[in-house]
């Protein structure tokens, strides 16, 4: 399950915003108010670490449905321009799919993952853009450099981990690795329990890593997922 964010995780964006505005003011000195606004708008695009233009409902993973996590449970970023993405963190929800989605939408929860996968059929809900830092690993650096995938189920219930869920997650993981050139190995695809300082045990002893890694390798050797438009 997603975890309390690391200390100091929140508020990272504040100094950057301050810097951006200051830069905009300097550049725009002596120009009209309209030109100033245009200049600021242009700079907003150029300076790494600020928001890329986003379209509501847009997903990174073709076929995923979009349900936005609360903005309080993530930090807007511009990955991989500002933070390289080099890891995937595997989680188990310790609750139902619906509950995981509900708590990630709750601003008081202080955690969210990028993806939640349903056990029954492998449906994928994306809740944070891969651009953004979601608070799921309980470790600031890991949050900044990883994509978090939650799997519906319980660590002590092996029947949670269905074939449909493994296959769907493997396809997703293979596509994420493809997007950011992440090596498909256990150094880069880790369990929440393997994150330094982790107090969580997920995905637990029943998560079949050999099977999962093999499925990811197989998925990676097939063409990546495509959107309807691309087909
Ligand atoms: Zn977890």
From TrEMBL:
Residues 74-204 form the N-acetylmuramoyl-L-alanine amidase domain. One of its GO terms (biological process) is peptidoglycan turnover. This is N-acetylmuramoyl-L-alanine amidase. Keywords: Cell wall biogenesis/degradation, Hydrolase, Membrane, Transmembrane, Transmembrane helix. GO terms for molecular function: N-acetylmuramoyl-L-alanine amidase activity. The keyword Hydrolase applies. Its EC number is 3.5.1.28. It is an enzyme of class 3 (hydrolase). The keyword Nucleotide-binding does not apply. The chain crosses the membrane at residues 18-36. It catalyses: Hydrolyzes the link between N-acetylmuramoyl residues and L-amino acid residues in certain cell-wall glycopeptides.
